[in-house]
């Protein structure tokens, strides 16, 4: 499957093109998230890093596109969308569902002979640390309660019925994708992995995040910040520093 230039544009957002940057950072959103979540990261890293943010189907300007509720399929499609951008080294950053997706994309890129420079896995337990979760089976009220509990969404938005009707289908599809996904056993990426997490994240304990070290044959590092599942909202500057320093360091 080869993606057309028009389809590629649907998937990739490049808010601050950095034509001369030596490396590209691919950012993958959390469940229910959109590419625009990474606009501040793109702005902060340009022009040293060329940031690409992935826009999943079913949200914002892609609201009319059918949602993808299977993580393996989403990884296949994301990988295809990234192939035209592999003329420069790629680093991957994913938060929550996006971290697992980034890992699956890294595996697929490596199968094609394209080795990412580093995989940043944020706010997500290691692929081998499975939990039985069924948020995607809840009714709309249950989905909204999950959003409130994680504090990742503007609570004012959660009170806007019209907005909710636009975002809930994509959110449910994303939760179904991540909650029904099972990592293929025994596979490891050959690129370094740097895990980031909040010390009070109900979705991923530090111990569960530490196990990312068993999913790479290269080096592993972990950064723990104060906060919950969306700890990164309060530590944006520090996280940008971690990304910048890691990308600039020699590969190990």
TrEMBL record:
InterPro entries, alphabetized: AB_hydrolase_fold (IPR029058), TEII (IPR012223), TesA-like (IPR020802), Thioesterase (IPR001031)
Iron-sulfur among keywords: no
Keywords: Hydrolase
Biological process, per Gene Ontology: lipid biosynthetic process
Keyword Nucleotide-binding appears in the UniProt entry: no
Gene3D superfamilies in UniProt: alpha/beta hydrolase
GO MF terms held by the record: hydrolase activity
UniProt cross-references to Pfam families, sorted A to Z: Thioesterase
Signal peptide (UniProt feature, chain positions): none
Coiled-coil region(s): none
All copies of domain Thioesterase TesA-like, residue ranges: 26-247
Family recorded in the similarity comment: Belongs to the thioesterase family.
Protein name: Alpha/beta fold hydrolase
Organism this protein belongs to: Streptomyces telluris
Origin organism lineage: Bacteria, Bacillati, Actinomycetota, Actinomycetes, Kitasatosporales
